[in-house]
Amino acid sequence: DAGVIQSPRHEVTEMGQEVTLRCKPISGHDYLFWYRQTMMRGLELLIYFNNNVPIDDSGMPEDRFSAKMPNASFSTLKIQPSEPRDSAVYFCASSEQGSNEQFFGPGTRLTVL
Amino acid sequence: KQEVTQIPAALSVPEGENLVLNCSFTDSAIYNLQWFRQDPGKGLTSLLLIQSSQREQTSGRLNASLDKSSGRSTLYIAASQPGDSATYLCAVRPRDSNYQLIWGAGTKLIIKP
After folding, report:
1. A-contacting residues of B 26-45, CB under 8 Å?
2. pLDDT, tens digit, for every residue of A6-59?
3. Can you give the pLDDT at residue B97?
4. What is the least distance, in Å, from the CA of B78 to any CA of chain A?
């Protein structure tokens, strides 16, 4: 398996634009997690899904953030409208039912100007 | 509220030395503890996962221990190499968390040739 795949790897956009981040989890994994990493706050869990259903979105900072998982092999994290303080590295991770071990993608480095 | 602390924040040692990284947590009611490695500009790689019922786990030159009663875990790296240079993060899964991990801020390790 290629591991967790994220795209794009880098995204530079202007304030107010819509940003969509994409993730393909490891095949067969039932859990998918979206994280944000910044120097100031470290790693923060934004939302996670189990069997494509959002289970806990309490980490989503504002209504500008939304996440979907239309099927077992694809998830998106959307920011609309984006703001400079959203600049961070966004990671997607997946996990197998009962495994507890999370496998991370390479991340998307987002810069909002 | 569970908090995870890693000390020191940074560590620089000569190649070949054995070293210990520390992770402490405030609430002993955990499901497991996981050590990750993060290379600059890349995602996180899972190194070792210790279940709450275990005392240690080993993988190659790495050994992780867990003492729930004192709220501590250590990651021991034997015969360090320049390729071990990275940021090492520990994360605990609280017993009541539903897969959410609580993260330490990491220890940045530099192995000097």
Report:
1. 31-32, 34, 36, 41-45
2. 999 999 999 999 999 999 999 999 999 999 999 888 899 999 999 999 998 989
3. 72
4. 24
Q: Are B94 and B30 in contact (CB under 8 A)?
A: yes
What six digits make up the tokens of B64?
């992780």
Give the distance from residue A63's alpha carbon to the nearest chain B alpha carbon, in angstroms. Answer: 21
- Beta carbons of A91 and B101 less than 8 Å apart: no
CB neighbours (10 Å) of residue A40?
5
Query: Average pLDDT in the B95-110 region?
Result: 87
Chain B residue closest in CA terms to A102:
B46
Contact B99 A101 (CB under 8 A): no
Residue B42 to residue A106, Cβ atoms within 8 A: yes
CA distance to A61, B47, B105, per residue, from A39 (Å): 17, 22, 9
B54-93 residues labelled b (16+ CB within 10 A) or e (exposed): eeebeeeebbbbbebeebebbbebeebeeebbbbbbbbbb
What's the pLDDT score for residue A1? 64
Say whether pLDDT at B91 is over 70: yes
